[in-house]
Amino acid sequence: MDKHQNYSKQKVLILIYLPWVVSLMVQINPIVSYFVAWLGSFFIFYLTLFSSVKFIPLDLPLVKQVMRPIVIIQLIFAGFMCCTSIFYFMNHLGYEYFTKISPIPFQVNEQTYAIAKCQRLSLLAHAALVTGIIVKIKQFPIIKHRLNLNLDFFLIWLCVISYIIGGAASKIASIAQFSFGFINVSITCSALVLVRGMVQRKRGYMIFGGGLFAFNFLASTLTGYKESIIINVIIISFLMYPYYKKLILTLAIPTIYVLIYILPTFATIVRSQSWSGEKSAVEARREAFDAVLNNEAPVIEETNWLFLTDRISEINMFTIFVKHIPAERGFYGSEIVKNSILAIIPRTFWPGKFVTETISMERVYDAGVVSGASTVSAKTRPVVDGYVSAGFVGVFISIFLYGLVTQWICNKAEEWFGGYELGCIVMFNAIFQNLWRGNNFEFLLNNIVYGYIAMYAIFWILKRSNTITELEVYEASGEGVELKRR
C-alpha cells in the first residue's frame, strides 16, 4: 500500500468517529443527541461509500462489488441497528407515522436519555464495524485459484448438489447446522444464474435460475417469517443492481413500501393460522394475500406500526439492558465469550453440554426483557452483548472484531474460489448470511466456525477434483497487473 492509500485509509477512519464525538458533546439534550447519532450513521454511509476519501477494493467499480462487506453488510447490519430506531423514538415522542397523536406536550424523561445513549452506542458500533472492515480490505484482492469450468455451468451443478446436500443434512441432527449454509448456496446460485442469464440473454439459464429462485421465494412465503422473504428480495436486488441500476432504483421505493407496510400483516396472518394448526400453510397464505389485497387498512396499519416500533428495531430491548447494567447487575466480562467458545464443541463429544438457546436467553430473562415463563425467543444482538460484557469498550472491541473477521473471511473466499462472483457472492454471502445482521455471541461464533469449516470442505473437494486449480499469485498494482510466482 502506497503512502497515498495509507493516508486515505487513516483519513476516513478518523472522520467516521466525528458524529459519535459530537453526540457525546450534546448528550445533555437527549433529543438533540439522539438525532446527531442517528444522522451520524448516514454520514458514515456517505464517507465510506460515496465520498472522495472512501477506502474500497479497486479491482471493480463500486457498483459491481455491492456484495462485499463494506457495502452489503454495512448497509444491512448498521441499517437495522442504527437507522430503524427512528420509528421507536418518534413513537416515544408521541408520534404515529410521523403524525403527532398525543395531546400532552412531550417531557424529556429517563427513557429519552436511555434511547439517546443506546443510539450513541449503536453509532459507535457502526464506526467500529467499518473500522474492522477497512483494516482488512485489500484494495487489490489476491486470487490464488481459478475455476476450470464455465461459471454458468458450474453454478447450475453447484445449485443442485448444494440443495441435495442441504436437504440431507437437515435430516441428521449432528450435522443439521450445515444444512442452512448449503441451502443458501443453492438459493444464491439460482439467483446468480437468473441474473447472468438475463445479462447474457440466455433463455435456458433464465428459466433454470428463475424457476428455482421463484420456487424458493414462494416457499419462504409459507414460513410465516418476514426475514426469509426479505432475504430473497435483498439477494435478487443486489445481484441485479450492477446491470439494471435504474430499474432497481425505480422499484426500490414501492418494494420498501410493500416490505415495511404490508409484509408484517401478511406474515402475522400466516404465522397465526398455520403455526397453530388451524389451517395449512397454503390456506393461511391465501388468506393473508386476501387481507392485504382487500386493503384492510386498520389491521395493516396497526400491525405495521407495532412492527416498526418493536420488531424491526430492537432499541427497546437495548434500553432495558442499559438500565439494568451496571445499575442492577455488574458487567458480564468474559462470561459470554467463554460460553460462546464452549458452544462450539459438538454435542457428540460433550453429551452434557448446555443448550445454547437456553444459556443465551438467561441474560434476557435476568434483565426482564421477557418473562422466563414466556415461549418468546428474544435473543440479543452483537451490540447488546458487547455492551453487557464491558460497556462502551465492549461495544467497540466486539464490533471491531466482527468487521475484521467478516472482511477476512470474504478475502479468503475470493482467494480460494477465483474471485468476486464465486468467492464473495456465492460462498461468502451464502454460507455466512448470518453475518448480514448478526446474532448473539453464542450463536454467532458457532455460525462463523462451522461456516468456515463448510467453506473449506467445499474448497478442498473442488481442489481435489481439479475443478479449481492453484494459480500463480496475481497482485494488481497501480501500474497495472504484476505477476508474482510462489
What does this molecule look like?
By secondary structure, the chain is mostly helical. The protein has one domain (3-484). It is built from 19 helices and five strands. It has helices spanning 3-15, 18-25, 30-49, 72-83, 85-92, 110-136, 151-169, 177-200, 203-220, 226-240, 245-274, 281-293, 297-311, 315-324, 335-343, 356-367, 382-417, 420-431, 441-464; strands at residues 95-96, 99-100, 143-147, 468-477, 480-484. Strands 3-4-5 form a three-stranded antiparallel β-sheet. A two-stranded antiparallel ribbon has the order 1-2. Strand 4 and strand 5 (480-484) form a beta hairpin. Helix 4 runs antiparallel to helix 6, helix 11 (245-274) crosses helix 13 and helix 17 (382-417) packs parallel to helix 19 (441-464). The longest helix has 36 residues, at 382-417. Mean pLDDT is 87; it is low at 477-486. This is Oligosaccharide repeat unit polymerase. Keywords: Membrane, Transmembrane, Transmembrane helix. The chain crosses the membrane at residues 12-29, 35-58, 70-90, 121-137, 149-169, 175-195, 251-270, 386-405, 417-437, 443-462. It comes from Pedobacter frigiditerrae.
